[in-house]
Amino acid sequence: MLKNIIYKEIQEQMISTKMLIAASIIVPMMIANGVIFNIQHANKLDKYDRERIESTDAIRKESSSLRNLLFHHQKLIKTPSKLAFISNAEEHVLPNGLWIDYFEESQPEFHKGQNRYFSRFSSIDWSFIMIYVISFICIAFSYSAFSGEKVKGTLKLMMSNSMSRGSLMLGKFIGIVVCITAPLIIGMLLDLIIIQLSSNMIFTGSDLWVILIFGITALLFISFNVLMGFLISCLTMKPIHSLNVVLILWILLNIIVPSVSWIFSKKMVDVPSEANLTKYAYDTAREENRKGGYSWSYHSAWQGKPPNETLRSRAEGIQLLTAVQQEIMQNYLQDKFRQTQLAIRLSKISPFSVFRFIGESLSDNGFQGFTNFHQQVRTYRTTFNDFIFQKDQQDPDSYHLIWNESWASRTFSSGKPVAFEEIPRFEYRTPAVSELLKNSLIDILILVLWNLVLFTGTFVSFMRYDVR
Amino acid sequence: MTNHLYSLKFITMSLFAVIFAVLCVYVQIMDFHDRKIIYDEEVVKAENEMKSAKVYSQVRVPIVIEPNPMSIFIRGSESQIGNKIVISPIQVPEFENTSQTKNAFLDIFSSFDLITLVQIMFSVMTLFLVADTIAGEREEGTLKQIFSNRVLKSQYFMAKYIGCITMLIIPLILIYLIASILLILQPYISLSFEQWMTIGFTFLCCLAFISIYVLIGLIISSRCSSSSVAVLYGLILWIVLVFVYPNLTNYLITNVIRIPSSDVVEQQIENMHEEINQKTESATDHLEDSGSYSWYSSGDYGIAQLIGLTHKKTYGVHVEKVRLSMPIILEGHEDIMRQQDQFKQQFIRQRRIASIFIRLLPGHLLKESTSKIAGTHYLERDIRLLSHAKRFRESLIQYIRSKDGFGLRFFTQMKEEDMRDDWDDYTEEIETRSSPNQYPPLDLSDMPTFRPAQRQVIPNESLVDLMWMFLMNMVLFIIGGLLFSRSEVRIMD
After folding, report:
1. What is the ipTM score, two decimals?
2. pTM for this one?
3. Searching chain B, which residue's CA lies closest to the CA of residue A94?
4. Which of B282, B276, B290, B279 is nearest to B318 (CA)?
């Protein structure tokens, strides 16, 4: 009996106009995603490769002397994500790089083309298609599953047969999910073929695993939306009322909750303006310097000679100045991260946000991607600084006095050339599948929980539903 | 109309829209407050900066743009373009990347202004409420009863249209009323008469927008056999018009039509500055100074910014350096400004191409017309304001010239009669007076002040968008009327 219900549901939905409209929206959007992604990714990779070559050449040039390397600003940019077709993650509004040197690390910066005359828009990636199009289609298919059949009179006819309510519900659920998944899978496969045809893209085993995990999550998301439609359908008598309630819920969970969550995070975690904080950092650093009683004296005649106490005092004072400002600015960045993470957690009240951030985590993009990048930059900087320090220590001719004034301090550190191959270079490492899965596991479990709750709720409601 | 007014779906959707509107306006007011605080801090900084100028090389007029209260209604480009331009003879005027938001990472979340709320909520509400009006009456059989009397189809259609508009104007009025009350209650916002008029005009634009969707809803309703099918088609159309098509178009255009990256632009501008540096260096290469100063701070392009005590001849050398360098610098800046304009034209071109494809979308027309009326459009901020700032720079340069600010007074307050050829000839009193710490600030009370250009309440460029909205209404009304007049009043198979 269950098989018959599934077959009947699939047959009914497949030949409906709704299905035709759904397929004619989903498949072209997926194809468009593939085509645009190829163009976008090629451009991003091209720019990224040019930047890397420039950066490598600059390091090679500076390697002629360790003290040049000491003051060399390195611009580090996050590698464009190979899986951005899954979720572009509002990447165009997020910074994608920063610069570092031995002494400082900058705040995040934009190193990409941005047209500030464009009003905000979303990228047409798999996440967008799922969240705005597929979810709506799920509702369109499921809102009248029970209330619609009740109004037509077919529900009581079905129940007059020896069919359990559970089987009917399960059969309809499987049938609708299969119907919606079919054009989605076709679209995804076409999309992947188009992307694979590009010379820049070769999917590795890890990429395919990530795509599979996203596919499973997408199935959970479809299931959630269908069950939401089912539940409302079981709680109302007429399909128009079901549609009314489901639409309000969709707008609430998809648009309103994600748009207001960040307000509360702003109230709970206070972050000052950068201009204010830069001034505060400078004033605090100057005050610490003043308390330490460090000297500000410098004479050009000291160059090349062993550093005296006055010079050491100046160097220590400026090192302290830099260190205090850096600490304050890094804490400021961490506060921004905390505020954003809180906003993300609050927005996950909505399952639509949960799904959105699963996509971002899996594609190593968006805010999650940037924090991964930032962690790797910090690790690299520590390695780089240790390398510089060790090299300087190994030079018997160096006075081993390093401080952040390139015009004054050059002659007091090592000026020996450095083998280019020895210099640590930054290579962004895309997290392994296990790491990506670990980051998204809780969100996936939340989606599973939502499904279980809605399934149970629908089951209980349908058991008590008056089919006459 | 009364049936719909008392219907559950109208009440729930209107309540929803009003609650969400209150939230939106609250968020925008909070954000405006943050921007106002940053603005007030910048103004104090700017005033202190101006007061601290002791020589004409230090004269910098920071223009800080006050946040526009109309951005609470329509954000436009308000926070995408910077809010500070520094005007100085040796600096190219351009918006500084002053952050108006405290945490740029929160931009991953959408933030709705009132017009965006109207665009999203009212469009879906309109289609949802209107799409089943005619189809529903056809389904129930009341439509054929109506036409069994002497009622013209055109009269019926017009009546439906007016009834739906009247019904939907109620929540719109409520939203605007609540938004206005919330604005009045804020102590840091005071609106002029022109701004209230602007709010009124944006209300009319919203009405025109709702009217378009009412007509779309009526067209769908007149062609569909059942009310739920009509509503469903209406909602699918909504998804396409509000989410799918505009995002797809913008996404496509931004990836197909390339614009230079910020790094490339900055690099090119930096190269041009370097060129100016090289030209000023070679023009002043033959001039030698003694190299002895009690105080020396260098400015841009190798020109001294502030000099304490030095030999009389060295003062003369620096005056000559300024005289030779300034024309090169000003000409170089003209080239840089032309280059920047060329880059901007590429950005504008990309946007204009996108606009061609979304020109007829009601949401796009609403946003364009309201942002131009409110003064938050990029044309107003980036193009017009910046041009005005560049003209102000010309008047500032003239002012400094009139004060002989490009001579000795460019870098010192030392009087010529106090200058000596030999360092040993300087008395202690002159040495003390020559210290820049002792210099009083310049008297800039007669300096020209920057005043933003007067705006029209309805700028000319918004008239095009308003005209398009009016045309769309006319065309949809005619199409709707024609389609309905040919449709069946009985239940369709």
Report:
1. 0.86
2. 0.85
3. B105
4. B290
